Amino acid sequence: MSTTGRIVGIDYGTKRVGIAIADPLRLFCQPVGTYTPEEALTILDRIESENWIESMVIGWPLELDGSEGLATMRVQQYVNRLKKRFKKAEFILQDERFSTERAKELIKEGGRPSLKKTGRERIDTAAAGIILQEYLEDLQSDA
Q: Minimum mean pLDDT among 19-23, 42-46, 115-119, 126-130: which range?
């Protein structure tokens, strides 16, 4: 197991959870995939056993005016499950407003204009990456 913990980005949805992971130097992130909420727990267990998860950066779906609503309550319930399972990890709630729209744009720019049903998984994984990358950039600017 690594002595440096990894940082994981999570884009929670009731049907799908996008996961991304930061490189050991915490400069960039890479996609892991999109899973059901239950499958995501198994994937996070695997990441924990291979790397040690130091922090989980979870997309916090604030309303446009910055207030919390029904979506944040749903995410909080999942965060509570994660906290019970990953007791040593730090949990960071990262504003995720517009991350899905940015993910769609990035995918289109990458040459994949069709985002029909099969594209939702790519969008969720990309959104997790955007959430995590913004956090990593904040870490670098604070250093």
A: 115-119
Pairwise CA distance, residues 133 & 115, whole Å: 22
Read off the pLDDT of residues 58-84 as tens digits, 9 standing for 90 and up: 999 988 898 999 999 999 999 999 999
Residues 6 or more apart whose CB falls under 8 angstroms from that of 105 comprise none
Amino acid at position 10, single letter: I
Closest CA to 32 of 3, 14, 53: 53
Go through the domains of the chain in sequence order and give each one's CATH number.
Answer: 6-142 (3.30.420.140)
Q: Which strand (E) or helix (H) includes residue 6?
A: strand 6-12
Contact 44, 8 (CB under 8 A): yes
Q: Which of 4, 3, 9, 5 is nearest to 92 (CA)?
A: 9
